[in-house]
Amino acid sequence: MNHGHQAIASVYRNYIREIGRFPHVYLRRVFRLKAEDDCRAVLITKCDDRRTGKLKRVSKTIQQIRAANNGSHQAFNRILDLAYGRVGRLRWELMEPLLSDPNAPLPPPIIPGKESSRPPVYSQELTALLISGLSRRKRPLAPDDLSFPPILPQRADPNSSDAQILGPFSKRREVNARWRYFGQEWKKVLPPLQISVSPSREVGGEGSDLGTSTAVRKIGFDGTTVLEELFQLTTKPKNASGSGTFLPRRWLRRRYQELLGRLPILTFISAREARKKSGGFSVSLAPNALKARNQGRLLPYATDDDVAWNKKHPTSR
Asked: Which residue has the higher pLDDT, 291 or 179?
């Protein structure tokens, strides 16, 4: 047992040593907490096989941090994704408040008398994230997909010809399909770090949201400067304060700009700006974000001249 404690202590010292090489304070702070949690989880594990498995995972994390500090593009992106909630437990903590809407009325049960058959509620924040291509790992959803998921057959619509010919679709199967679709689609969303408020809103003016404090929920890093510090890391060079780091400033800025391309900004828009009774939400990226390929602009429609040219040059690329 004493030998096991020594092994964990050695791993923890290596963990802290590699964390100290990180170029920015936020990364050192986050992974210092992670190191404590990881090593504490190993210590309290009684089963030898499970303890060995956890220790191997911790060692693998240390190797990944070392690779990031040595300039591995892929490893550094993984470190940033963990630190800013693109993957891992923090991602779930950022998404969890958006998966429900305490202010929305409960939808009626699909099966009369069965409370457990209520369909999922898509909050305004989650809806904005689902229908935007800037916050999705896959293509954005259409608004109609939320009210009638595409995995449901047309027979689930009682007014469809399929329902009239084949009979009504099973209500229990409809409930299961709606919740399955809800679960699989929100997991493709990249969560925001916080909910911002449109700066053009005039407090107290006609049409402004006097109840903004209740309309905008506090999630994630709200009330901190994490997002502002992240913007600064992508715009001005920062001296690497961690000892032993040799990562070029331009290389670091590039990594953080790529991170901003995976970090949607969810902004609350006032009722006057959104032309809605209760306001709305918009999704955007930071101006200096490097977008992924599937987030870029679509090609323009081909003109008649383009079509004629393609017919003359069928093998051109």
From this structure: 179
